[in-house]
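Quick note —
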Amino acid sequence: MKIALCTISFRHQLISLAELAIWAQANQFQGIELWGAHARNLAGQPHYDGDWLAGFGLEVPMLSDYLPTEGPRTDIRQQTLALCALARHWRTSRIRTFAGRRGSRDTASGERAAIVACLREQSIMAAEHGLELLVETHPGTLADCGASTLRLLEEVDHPAFRLNFDTLHVWEGGDEPLTLLRQLRPHIGYFHLKNVRSRDELAVFNPANVYAAAGDRRGMVPLFDGCVDYRDLLAPLLEDPDVSASLEWFGNDCFEVLRRDRRAIAELARDAARAPSLLAVG
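Predicted structure written out below.
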């Protein structure tokens, strides 16, 4: 399992990509998930690219953005093609977006059909550039629960259309993450890993709060300190080299929390690798 950090964690800090790359390399990360806003702002400095990052032994596993699913088709196509070009520049094979801007229960059938058609067209464009289009499991979208997400996969019906499995939001939507993981595994292209202290504090992850520099960070906790049980969820994934995930930390003390969580995952992987031999000895 390959683990990346996210540049969005540092959205309110004055830290360069070069500093992040040096730190990520020193702390056993394999990649840096690049926020779309950061990728666009770096476009004027073309020497920063996938080859440059590879010099640190790192990759961009995913370019995370917010493609429109409504409005003029010309605008949608232009934004999608621009994101595909940025993805190629960074040598990544994944672009992340969302399935609309309303929850599945609040989306009329005609509106849902239009979003599905848009996602299919964006998937076609992504495939033409050798990319996958990943929709994130997230409240306030058509991927807000397991039933709607499974239906969405059937509706879009394109091999380049996959999922970014945001484990916390799966749990928030009422599904048991490990159960849904088993159902969706063939369609999952990436994982986001974060946790919360209690269900009552899930509002701290509302976009309006997350993106506010003065937003509330209480309730955001390190990966193994919250309500979602990541030990059981990660167990079947740790030894799979084709699985990639990001520690999506939105709270304070970014370097310390990310360092701690990365070490905890490495320790979990070591324990899992030793388990068969321990059982044999017993």
